[in-house]
Specification:
Layout (H helix, E strand, L loop, with lengths): L2 H4 L3 E3 L4 E3 L2 E6 L9 E9 L2 E11 L4 E2 L4 E2 L4 H26 L6 H10 L6 H12 L5 H17 L10 H13 L4 H20 L25 H12 L5 H16 L3 H4 L11 E6 L4 E6 L2 H9 L8
Antiparallel strand pairs: 1-2, 3-4, 4-5, 6-7, 8-9
Helix pairs in contact: 4-5, 4-7, 6-7, 8-9, 9-11
């Protein structure tokens, strides 16, 4: 056994034996209507063999058994070779992980990891997998935003292969979003989310035609206009007036509470009436994931007194 193969053998500590697991890309002999052959991943080890169809079709005569890649130099063949490279990276990652953790890797466990492990070909498959993996660590609003961005991009392309993501692709995607009527800040926000998934893919060892660090993201803040103190006072006067409707008073009350305290709307909506004490109130600051205590100032006290339904009815 050569040294290069030995690192990918899995030792079974109890019996001190080595199980050699070998993988190889092999196309079927029969062809479809287009004259192409389905590529399979063959896995052998410990007298067992498994074949996994890869949903990749190649011209049989142009597939080199030695390099396990296409010999053609056209763009489509290069894309297919890069897809195979990503699959090979996935294979290496599985073998290395099992070896370093001293776990037995047999044909069945490898097949399970390969089929249900990290998606390395389709961007959406990876992004959906990674988003669900991160769900418990993200604020609900962040998860919802990223999920919505993925659903939007699926209207642009139902499938996006990692091999197709380059600077030209990003220009086309930006233009599509602009043609959909998205504001520039919205486009840049979507690109920012897209970049985050690509960065995560790179950290997982997925080969990309573009370095995520090279993707420039523009301003995502939009245009903001600050209210003058006199304008806030006019709103407060309207809030205390007798001719404001109950529904408008409730909505305006939450807005003014944000003005008087500096809290985000996402933080305001999680506050309950019983969290207000005589001189302070508590709230959960989502951005820093911690509870905060804030004094109740005179304006806030007057606001709560004018509307008993505030923080009871959302």
């Amino acid at each position: 056994m050569v040294a290069a193969d030995a690192i990918f053998d899995t030792r079974v500590d109890t019996n001190k034996i080595f199980v050699s697991l070998k993988t190889k890309f092999i196309p079927r002999r029969d062809k479809n209507k287009e004259g192409l052959s389905l590529l399979y991943l063959h896995i052998t080890g410990d007298k067992l063999r498994k074949r996994i169809p890869l949903d990749i079709y190649v011209p049989l005569t142009e597939f080199c058994p030695q390099t396990q890649r296409l010999k053609l130099l056209d763009d489509h063949s290069r894309d297919l070779n890069l897809i195979i490279d990503n699959l090979q990276s996935k294979i290496t990652s599985i073998k290395t992980t099992y070896r370093l953790t001293n776990k037995k890797l047999d044909v069945l466990s490898f097949t399970e990891e390969f089929v249900n492990g990290i998606p390395r070909v389709n961007f959406f498959a990876f992004a959906d997998w990674f988003l669900e993996k991160q769900k418990g660590q993200l604020a609900p609003s962040t998860y919802k935003k990223q999920k919505y961005t993925l659903e939007k991009l699926k209207r642009f392309r139902s499938v996006i292969y990692f091999t197709k993501i380059d600077h030209a692709f990003l220009l086309t995607m930006r233009q599509w979003m602009a043609n959909q009527g998205n504001l520039k800040t919205t486009v840049e926000s979507n690109i920012s989310t897209f970049k985050k998934f690509l960065t995560a893919a790179k950290k997982q060892g997925i080969l990309l035609p573009i370095d995520p660090n090279e993707i420039q993201v523009g301003n995502t803040n939009g245009n903001r206009t600050d209210l003058k103190p006199s304008e806030v006072n006019r709103l407060f006067d309207y809030y205390k007036s007798t001719f404001i409707t109950p529904q408008n008073r409730l909505v305006l009350g939450y807005f003014l509470f944000s003005c008087f305290t500096g809290l985000r709307i996402s933080e305001v909506m999680y506050i309950e009436r019983n969290q207000f004490d005589e001189g302070f109130f508590e709230f959960f600051e989502k951005k820093k994931a911690r509870f905060q205590r804030r004094n109740i100032n005179q304006s806030t006290r007057a606001l709560l007194a004018e509307c008993p339904e505030l923080f009871l009815d959302k």
